[in-house]
Amino acid sequence: SAKVTATPATLNFDANNCATAQTVTLAAVSDGDAEDEATQISLSATGITTREVAVTVDDDETQAHIVTPA
């Protein structure tokens, strides 16, 4: 399952904007655990080799420990 989403998911470059930076925002997908995770996103375009970029997801859930006296 996806660990991050990208917005926008697709960028379009043409002769008029090929030198202009375009921002992509990555957001972690909420899950039920408290573990940080790692994933990758793919960058691809016609005529270039697809590149994988590592992404680290810092989880926002906390883990509770329940201690019961014996």
From the spread of the alpha carbons, the general shape counts as: elongated
Strand proportion: 25-35%
How would you spell out the order of helices and strands?
A: EEEE
Number of helices: 0
Output the structural class. mainly beta
| Topology, number of strands | 4
- Order of neighbouring strands in the sheet with most strands: 1-2
State the share of residues found in helices, binned by percent. under 10%
What is the makeup of the main sheet? 2 strands, antiparallel
Averaging pLDDT over every residue, what do you get?
86
- Model regions low in confidence, pLDDT < 50 over at least 5 residues: none
- Alpha-carbon distance between the termini? 40 Å
What is the CA-based Rg, rounded? 18 Å
Characterize this entry briefly.
The chain is built from no helices and 4 strands. It has strands at 4-7, 25-28, 37-43, 51-57.
Indicate the topology.
Layout: E1 4-7, E2 25-28, E3 37-43, E4 51-57
Antiparallel strand pairs: 1-2, 3-4
Structure characterization notes:
The protein is mainly β and 70 residues long. The protein has no helices and 4 strands. The strands form 2 sheets. A two-stranded antiparallel ribbon has the order 1-2. It has a two-stranded antiparallel ribbon with strand order 3-4. The radius of gyration is 18 Å and the shape is elongated. The model has no long low-confidence stretch (mean pLDDT 86).
